[in-house]
Sequence to fold (118 residues):
Amino acid sequence: QVQVVESGGDLVQPGGSLRLSCTASGSTFSRYAMDWYRQAPGKRRELVAQIISNGMTNYADSVKGRFTISRDNARNTVWLQMNSLKPEDTAAYYCHAGAPFLKPEGYWGQGTQVTVSS
Fold:
């Protein structure tokens, strides 16, 4: 069983920055594809950013140039650096560990709330 835990959500003003952290347990963390999703009230959960085992990244068009995903395999941790935040970035942010060799659907964290408001 892989445990996924997010942290770092907060209330921030428009234009501000925030860094989310996610740790995932397991000795094979370096093989996980790590994703950040978000879900705003009344909306579907959407993929925000992804970093796969070789370090390649992928971003939603809405966050390109503002958000950066990174990982440290030695610390079993992935971060989402969010800059130039907008009110429409307000959502619950979820970390997902993709490890199909362990569990097809992967593992989810409980989420951390990001609110962008003045």
User: Anything to note?
Assistant: The radius of gyration is 14 Å. The chain has a mean pLDDT of 96.
